[in-house]
Design brief:
By secondary structure, the protein is mainly alpha-helical. The protein has three helices and no strands.
Length: 102
């Protein structure tokens, strides 16, 4: 073996050993094992998908909408409902007038 190959082999070996030793430092934790980490983790709360039946929201002291606001909203919704069939008829009328070509 030539002198240059020996130096290259030694350099590669040194890099390999330093990489392995640094990798070991990165994964080791000071005085604990993976089992200790599980023991220190807080337990997950045992909450179900649904809230318990006995937990009810607090009662409200005053209504969220006044009577006037409710009346105004009701009238607006009725007017919007009455406009819906008229708007649907206007949109369908031009489409039905043109026959489909094969």
């Amino acid at each position: 073996m030539s002198n240059r190959r020996k130096v290259t082999a030694l350099a590669a070996g040194a890099l390999l050993l330093s990489g392995l030793s640094l990798g070991g430092c990165a994964t080791s934790s000071a005085g604990s094992s993976p089992m200790d980490a599980r023991a220190q983790a807080p337990a997950a709360p045992k909450a179900g998908a649904y809230s318990p039946i006995q937990d009810k929201p607090p009662e409200r002291d005053e209504p969220t909408m006044t009577t006037d606001e409710r009346l105004k909203l009701r009238n607006e919704l009725i007017a919007a409902r009455d406009r819906q069939p008229k708007a649907a008829k206007v949109q369908k009328a031009p489409a039905q007038a043109e026959p489909a070509k094969p």
